Amino acid sequence: MNARESAVVVAGLSIGMLAACTNGDADTAPGPDAGVSESATTGAEADPEPVDPAELVADLEASVMADDEEGMSVASVEGELETVGGGKRPVTVKVRGIRPGVASTEVEFSVRSKGDSASLDTLALTDRAGSLYGVAVIDPEADERYEAFEDAGDSYYSTCSYKPKTLSGTPYYLTCLVAPLQGRPESVSLQIPDLPLIEDVPVTWSQE
Amino acid sequence: MLGDFSYPYFGRAEDPVVHGVVHGVRRVDGGTMLYYSLGEPTEGVGAGKTPVYSRDEWDPEHYGPRTVASVSVVDPDGLQAYRPFSADGEAVAVEAREIDAAPGRLVVAWAMLPEMPEGVTSVDVMMPRGSVVSDVPVEDGALEPVVDEPAPLLGEGWPTVPVPSDLAEVDPGVSILDLTRHVGDADGTVEVEESVEDVVVTLDADVLFDKSSFELSRSAVQEMDRVAADIAERGTGDVVITGHTDSDGSTSDNQVLSEQRARAVRDALQPASGDGVTFRVVGRGEDDPVATNATDEGQQENRRVTVEFTVEQEER
């Protein structure tokens, strides 16, 4: 998930209201309030502030479409990635977050070419087709390493983003779901193939 | 928690970026509905605009070219992934030609996936190009109000859920993938690959043994304790221990060394592994390399001992 903080605040409210729309009358032709939940209506009764469904959708669309903000990274590294043909390209990686979930851990980072905005050739980043391969979260204190889930069969299905075909000066956002962290480490290391280990990356634990 | 996602539609940095929102993963008759929406801020999405689904994500064998099938739902706890149903070579999902929205607008899309076990209450959703929305709750019932549009604009209602008769020809086996979970120690000398049915622990022989020796080193003791505790906790049936070598030395010497090392690991594990399992020892010598023997790194990968055991199934 691209957890843009500003977007999530709006989207969290709006998505919840739209998704909770389970008790509408299916026989009723959709009007301007279609897609707004009973819970939203109930909420309006408790709250004198009226909710304009069209405005709600417009706010959600505006927040979701907003440009990603690279500035919220929690760690970064510079290195070189191999390109097809054996070349090397300098890149900057910014880690946007390592977020433990219910049964997995979400890793989000951006990669962009350093210095210029020229497109690059297909990056290695993996020695297998399709998805990123070899991304790992390492907890040095607990001596534990966590990697992505993969298909137990023959396919290349994994829980990492497809690798980028090209990079430019614009950040390219990538995610991986890795195995759930044991214990509650405050910081971990992130290993991305072909790049220096990124150490002391803070873990964003949800409030409980 | 539901959330948003984005991806450059064809995987190039210069491509228009498709943005979207996951609206729900809902249990319905015959399966699971995934509702999401897609849009693009400058061109919009659809024919003549930004495509939402690129050819390199096709799985033509099961999903054909017309449907938006590059979505899946992951149950990381149950180690399964659910892809859209496949019927007559097409995904039971929104068709790409039905997706159409002006710049900045979100259009609702959907896919029908197999039923998930009752105990699954939260999943991670993989959207096109592998973008992720994690910790999405699994809820009951279709979203309403329903409209006739297969892909309405957000706010106009929700698409119709396929009825069970539409799913008569589907093969859920095509759409359910068994996953493996990969963990290990920090420096990669112990790797654990876990599936629903079994666990395979791969131990770096250079950590367990001195060169050409079959006596366990002191540094191996801690790793043996960890593996034995795991077997005692959830192992059942046979525990198969297999020794492997690189190709240095004679084939017969390597065969003997692999058997001796496998027996040494068994002797270390057995006392602490409980009574619920039976050990079996195999030596494979240099016959099953996992990497090239032409490099030092490859040879090191090939010098290993694997411990494989079946795990007791948990009811969900």
UniProtKB/TrEMBL annotation, chain A:
Disordered, as annotated region: 24-52
Protein name listed in UniProt: Lipoprotein
